[in-house]
Design goal:
With 85 residues, the protein is mainly α. Helix content is 71%, strand content 0%. Keywords: Signal.
Length: 85
């Protein structure tokens, strides 16, 4: 029986996949911990699109988005300064 690279590649991939699956099944809490700790400590909130759409045309223009981002950045800086005092 001759074993070629054509036979070894799928077999080695299957072994690696089975090993990873076995690790995840053996310790599902570890996978949850990795994803939970990977999140930023202060996750951004969902944007209020109606508040950003100031002209109420149903679309967010570049100017509206820029104004919103500048206002949010200013608000964030003011909040940070107020809490650090």
């Amino acid at each position: 029986m001759t074993i070629s690279i054509r036979h070894l590649a799928p077999a080695s991939f299957a072994v690696a996949l089975a090993t990873l699956a076995g690790t995840a099944l053996a310790n599902p809490a570890a996978a949850t911990e990795r994803t939970a700790t990977a999140a930023a400590p202060t996750a951004p909130t969902t944007r209020d699109w109606q508040r950003i759409d100031t002209d109420r045309d149903g679309y967010i223009s570049a100017a509206e988005m820029q104004a919103y981002l500048v206002a949010e950045q200013t608000r964030s800086r003011n909040t940070t300064l107020a809490t650090s005092r």
